[in-house]
Write a structure and sequence with these properties.
Layout: H1 5-8, H2 17-33, E1 41-45, H3 48-51, H4 56-66, E2 71-73, H5 75-78, H6 84-91, E3 97-100, E4 113-116, H7 118-128, E5 134-138, E6 142-145, E7 150-154, E8 160-164, H8 176-184
Parallel strand pairs: 1-2, 1-3, 3-5
Antiparallel strand pairs: 4-8, 5-6, 7-8
Helix pairs in contact: 2-8
Length: 213
């Protein structure tokens, strides 16, 4: 039998409708709770090897363009190799969101599978478990919320994370989850009215389980 039309349509997200709704609501609460004039600080989790490439500043500029008004911070802005382990638990709770820049599988320039090392994996877990927005920056696609990607743990002794971008993700469609995350990371003008503190969101529970065999 020929494939049904539905089977021919690439997936735009790996999240269920329920997960997407929960994520959008969580992002709404974060944005609503931000006080007027309060800065938005976004941490870029990126391996040193990628930062040293000639095109890094252009890529960082693209991230900044999608997060107008947000302060982008990298490892060297906040840490040294000597104080990172001690300083990360103290400083990371003050950051509002994270953008992950990671190499693709087998180093391909364009790819749908990205790999996070041990440090990047733990950084993402710290953000996800507190409900703050985490986005992957994919080449040619821009920012993609982790909730829309397939995320799972790989490895035994050295744990890493593999992130698969949905094949049907279209940067021109701007999925509602992405729009919600971008709004959550947008500073409020000083003439905006403050609102109540948000409840802790419960989306993306246990996103780093090992895949079923």
């Amino acid at each position: 039998m020929p494939d049904s039309p539905a089977e021919d349509i690439p997936l735009a997200t790996y999240a269920t409708a329920k997960q997407q709704r929960a994520y959008i609501e969580a992002m709404r609460r974060i944005g609503k709770a931000r006080k007027p004039g309060e800065p938005v600080r976004v941490y870029i989790s990126v391996p040193p090897a990628l930062v040293q490439r000639p095109g890094w500043h252009q890529r960082r500029g693209k991230i900044q363009h999608r997060l107008p008004g947000a302060q982008l911070l990298q490892f060297d802005d906040l840490f040294t190799p000597e104080n990172y382990a001690e300083t990360w638990p103290q400083l990371s709770p003050s950051l509002d969101g994270m953008v992950v820049v990671a190499p693709t599988k087998r180093g391909a320039l364009q790819g749908s599978v990205y790999r996070l090392g041990e440090v990047g994996r733990l950084e993402v877990i710290d953000f996800v478990k507190t409900g703050r927005p985490v986005l992957l920056h994919a080449r040619g696609l821009g920012l993609i919320p982790f909730v829309d990607c397939k995320v799972h743990r790989v490895g035994d002794e050295k744990l890493r994370t593999k992130v698969t971008v949905p094949s049907g993700w279209d940067p021109h469609d701007y999925e509602p989850t992405l729009q919600a995350a971008l709004r959550a990371l947008r500073p409020h003008r000083t003439d905006d009215k403050p609102t109540a503190e948000p409840a802790r969101p419960s989306h993306l529970n246990r996103p780093f389980e090992a895949p079923h065999q």
